[in-house]
Amino acid sequence: MTQLCVGCGHSNPPGSRFCSSCGRPINSENEASTEGLETLGGIDAEVDLQVPATGAALVVTSGHQAGTRYAITSTHLTVGRHPDSDIFLDDITVSRRHVELDQGSTGYVLRDVGSLNGTYLNGERLAENETLLTNGDELQIGKFKLLYLVSSTN
């Protein structure tokens, strides 16, 4: 059974936590408060940080999706809380449309597309609208940390 948003009336898929149209929490009386996450510290034993054989990948190193690998196979990739995002990060700390990656002549360019909480690259908030990613860069999107890995054959 679909869930209607009390804010905008949008019909959302069953089990949705947030409205995919306006971002308002759905069924907020049952919503638990945001929990703090511990830093994973020695993540190499828990998360496969192997560089992809070809192409590039984003590996979630912290957050409830830790260990998830996303191959970057297209020239344009979207990351956010919107269910239509190429990389869907379902947490209130992530904007519906948070960042985009576009393939440039020398690699992938990261662009924050107006996120509320900002995007961090290697521990520093992005000051520029876009920046070129390099192998081993750590992105922080909301409470998720993702490692950008590139094959040496690229």
Number of helices: 0
> Proportion of β residues?
25-35%
Q: Topology as H/E string?
A: EEEEEEEEEEEEE
Which spans of ≥5 residues are poorly predicted at pLDDT below 50? Answer: 30-45
| Residue share in helix | under 10%
Largest sheet: 6 strands, antiparallel
Distance between the termini: 46 Å
Structural class designation: mainly beta
Strands of the widest sheet, in order across it, are 4-3-13-12-9-10
Radius of gyration equals: 16 Å
Mean pLDDT: 81
Q: In total, how many beta strands?
A: 13
Q: Note the overall shape.
A: elongated
Task: List strands and helices in order, with pairings.
Layout: E1 3-4, E2 11-12, E3 56-62, E4 69-72, E5 76-80, E6 87-88, E7 99-103, E8 108-112, E9 119-121, E10 124-125, E11 130-132, E12 138-141, E13 144-150
Parallel strand pairs: 5-6
Antiparallel strand pairs: 1-2, 3-4, 3-13, 5-7, 7-8, 8-11, 9-10, 9-12, 12-13
Kindly describe this structure.
The chain is mainly β. It is built from no helices and 13 strands. The protein has strands at about 5, 10, 55-60, 70, 75-80, 85-90, 100-105, 110, 120, 125, 130, 140, 145-150. The strands form three sheets. The protein has a six-stranded antiparallel β-sheet, with no helix packed on it. The protein has a five-stranded mixed β-sheet with strand order 6-5-7-8-11, with no helix packed on it. A two-stranded antiparallel ribbon has the order 1-2. A hairpin with a 6-residue loop joins strand 3 and strand 4 (about 70). It is elongated, with a radius of gyration of 16 Å. The N and C termini lie far apart (about 45 Å).
